[in-house]
């Protein structure tokens, strides 16, 4: 039974060189997380569907991967249904699937915090890096299985947490040499206040969804879409005014709210929070990454309740490289006490694509093997093998080539694996104990007549 | 909608302290893999069911987690079936599920090698660490989602690969301080030769399965089970003789085959291979880990064709901590050319349990935060925040405590996170710039009146 091998759509294999680059990104982010006191946790890929369902909106529920129950999973269907025509996914799925693959790392975090609260140290600062799954239509840069990378603080309402998370962004992007990025921040309470001021309190969710589209469509198109949705014409006018406010290229809307010219209590709280975070970041950061207040930033997900942030890269047609914000009610859905949380997320897949395109990965990314020892024939294999052990015992990562191919291929092998030197060992070398060292890339001799110990010095 | 949060059966959350310990094991193994020239790859969790099905036997197929197709996945069922009573899993599953979760890392490796052979450097030495999923009945130490950790060489038939892999085992277990373990090796060709010599060639698979049980049941019980299976009585006698051969506490069976007393060509090849690997390992290794030839070692999986190995830990009631062997035909199932492969696997979950029970994890396992700065009240919060930044800029992992709890809880927080020192900052400290450093564990003052720079020296 021979099958032409292929991947399930929207999934990927990673070659060693790709894994090395991905690890470089992960390790950079992890080191910063740890420096700031965040600890790593893990949750399973498989969650009960009752944990996942209803948390991501109707659209999200459709995108959950569901896992078939084991054994005779159709027994309940045979019990409850009497005709094949009754088999509709909506009704059948709950009967045959009770598990699913996690859709993000945030809902599992909420479950985790409620479930393990007695074992955790609060404020709980955790990070989590791992794959999530969505039954989305795959397209360039969008996969059904992809990594998320999140840091969150649960159980502290201090705004200094927001400032620290922004600093983590800045530090990571500097380390990755993507320093030409911009942290755009806004505050959900400020937007809520503006909606209230303009008499749109009851339409707040539509307002957020609309504003969120402003980087893709024009104001006019947005207003038209609202007309089409059947919003009353006075609301449309209010919306127009609100959009005027937030698209002004100045801080006027902020000062108007703070001065009380635009009167809204919740808006004023939001404005103060925004200013505090902005100024505190500026005061405590002197690097290259920019920060701006962007009143048009809304972030689609509706669980945010305070500061929101997105990382934009200027002059590069790519979405945000990360985003996050404060949410006040996440643990409530699992019956936990109301714990305020704030978190950020790194868009690993986009960061990778961008670094690849801009050639930002360091040349020697993987600490690979330093030297490849090649036995010229089977007579010298065991001798060569022993030399490799000696090198390794001296702490030098070394490899013996055990394939049966031409010299050119041996060099190609070494080059592909990023090995710097090659030493061929034949009967001569075995007798004399003198070796000829060659550079892999330049295909050139570095020197000959080395003893193994001289070679050791050369390499270490 | 409040739900009491819980995990899907057979899955686990990991607390920060557990992740740190697991990472310690992974990092130790990875560093040895890399030193020997193995490179990391990744494959997706989701594979096509056509890739997975039929590779793990009938029992394995039942244990595959299958993922429901998206959209109206029941359309085909409604087309093909006319009565509810026809709904039997065996027939319905292929109509509603085309994807599954990987069951191990070996079949994905075979697919990967065939699919990417033009991009890989051969001999291809890869390692892979990641979760796999099996719909097994969960029990102590057995999970539905668990990690595998494999290293394999594909495309080289040299027995020195076997020796290197055994050395990797030895080096890893020494580093993990589990040096009282034993590498038990055998050779499938030797067993095949013995089966041939005793006239059991046609029953080789049953012989392997039987021998594999010899560490759990007695010889007599094993023979009885063969009688029950309806094997002819002359075969039972032959089997008895074969078992006598392999359970002798000497190398007699090996020398008999090598001397030609027991005549079998394939057995002789196996005996020579076994001796070569054994002697070559002894010659090239001087550490504490023992190696023994164990003629009763069979390893259940039937794709092995040469050397087989298992890591046993003496005086500890736990299964093997790892196992592996050579397989010659794995890539063939995906239409690849016949590439010989050899690999080993670490039983991560068991290694973890054992290290935990024997207290083998180092005390300071995670490079965590060194000092916790605690603002005494909201007036000193911003000042404290700046001091934390200064410490971090000097390379000292530091944290500010932003929770609102009693002093005792602050110490508990620091202790749980493995933070060594605590510095409280109130109005006095802010004015004087002098700090009092306290040990977290001992709850004792290390000294007071330190300036920040003195503190820095103390900490770094």
How would you describe this protein?
2 copies of one chain form a homodimer. With 460 residues, chain A is an alpha+beta fold. The first copy, chain A, has helices at residues 16-35, 49-52, 57-63, 75-80, 89-96, 106-115, 160-175, 188-197, 204-212, 219-228, 233-247, 252-259, 265-284, 348-357, 381-393, 407-416, 427-432, 452-459; strands at residues 39-40, 46-48, 66-68, 97-101, 124-133, 145-154, 181-187, 290-293, 307-313, 322-327, 341-346, 371-375, 398-400, 421-425, 435-439, 445-450. The first copy, chain A, is 41% helix and 19% strand. In chain A, a hairpin with an 8-residue loop joins β9 and β10. In chain A, α1 runs antiparallel to α7 (160-175). The model of chain A has no long low-confidence stretch (mean pLDDT 92). The interface between A and B is large, with 119 and 118 residues.
How do the helices and strands line up, and which of them pair or pack?
The structure is a homodimer of 460-residue chains.
Chain A: H1 16-35, E1 39-40, E2 46-48, H2 49-52, H3 57-63, E3 66-68, H4 75-80, H5 89-96, E4 97-101, H6 106-115, E5 124-133, E6 145-154, H7 160-175, E7 181-187, H8 188-197, H9 204-212, H10 219-228, H11 233-247, H12 252-259, H13 265-284, E8 290-293, E9 307-313, E10 322-327, E11 341-346, H14 348-357, E12 371-375, H15 381-393, E13 398-400, H16 407-416, E14 421-425, H17 427-432, E15 435-439, E16 445-450, H18 452-459
CATH superfamily of the largest domain in chain A: Bira Bifunctional Protein, Domain 2
User: What proportion of the residues of chain A form beta strands (DSSP E)?
Assistant: 15-25%
Number of strands of chain A: 16
Biggest chain contact: A-B, 119 and 118 residues
Helix content of chain A: 40-55%
Q: Number of domains in the coordinates of chain A? A: 2
Q: In CATH terms, what is the fold-level topology of the largest domain in chain A?
A: BirA Bifunctional Protein, domain 2
Task: Point out poorly predicted stretches of chain A.
Answer: none
């Amino acid at each position: 039974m021979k099958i032409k091998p292929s991947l399930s759509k929207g999934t990927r294999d990673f070659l060693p060189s790709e894994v090395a680059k991905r690890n470089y990104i992960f390790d950079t982010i992890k080191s910063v997380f740890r420096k700031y006191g965040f600890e790593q946790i893990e949750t399973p890929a498989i969650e009960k569907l009752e944990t996942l369902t209803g948390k991501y909106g109707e659209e999200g529920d459709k995108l959950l991967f569901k896992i078939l129950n084991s054994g005779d999973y159709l027994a309940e269907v045979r019990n409850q249904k009497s005709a094949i025509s009754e088999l509709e996914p909506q009704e059948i799925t709950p009967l045959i699937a009770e598990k699913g693959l996690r859709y993000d790392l945030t809902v599992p975090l909420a479950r985790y915090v409620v479930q393990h609260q007695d074992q955790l140290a609060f404020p709980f600062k955790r990070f989590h890096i791992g794959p999530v799954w969505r039954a989305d239509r795959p397209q360039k840069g969008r996969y059904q299985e992809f990594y998320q990378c999140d840091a969150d603080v649960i159980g502290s309402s201090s705004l200094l947490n927001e400032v620290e998370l922004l600093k983590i962004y800045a530090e990571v992007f500097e380390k990755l040499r993507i320093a030409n990025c911009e942290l755009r921040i806004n505050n959900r309470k400020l937007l809520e206040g503006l909606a209230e001021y303009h008499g749109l309190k009851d339409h707040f969710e539509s307002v957020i969804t609309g504003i969120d589209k402003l980087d893709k469509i024009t104001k006019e198109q947005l207003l038209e879409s609202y007309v089409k949705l059947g919003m009353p014409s006075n609301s449309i006018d209010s919306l127009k005014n609100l959009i005027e406010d937030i698209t002004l290229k100045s801080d006027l809307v902020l000062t108007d709210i703070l001065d009380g010219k635009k009167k809204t209590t919740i808006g004023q709280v939001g404005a103060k929070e925004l200013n505090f975070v902005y100024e505190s970041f500026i005061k405590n950061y002197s690097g290259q990454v920019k920060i701006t207040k962007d009143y048009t930033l809304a972030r689609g997900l509706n669980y945010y309740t305070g500061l929101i942030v997105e990382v934009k890269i200027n002059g590069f047609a790519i979405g945000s490289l990360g985003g996050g914000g404060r949410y006040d009610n996440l643990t409530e859905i699992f019956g936990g006490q109301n714990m305020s949380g704030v978190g950020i997320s790194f868009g690993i897949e986009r960061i990778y694509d961008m670094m690849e395109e801009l050639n930002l990965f360091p040349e020697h990314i993987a600490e690979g093997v330093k030297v490849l020892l090649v036995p010229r024939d089977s007579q010298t294999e065991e001798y060569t093998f022993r030399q490799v052990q000696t090198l390794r015992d001296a702490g030098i990562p070394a490899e013996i080539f055990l394939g049966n191919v031409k010299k050119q291929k041996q060099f190609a092998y070494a080059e592909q694996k990023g090995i710097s030197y090659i030493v061929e060992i034949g009967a001569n070398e075995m007798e004399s104990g003198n070796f000829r060292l060659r550079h892999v890339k330049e295909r050139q001799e570095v020197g000959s007549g080395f003893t193994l110990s001289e070679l050791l010095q050369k390499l270490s």
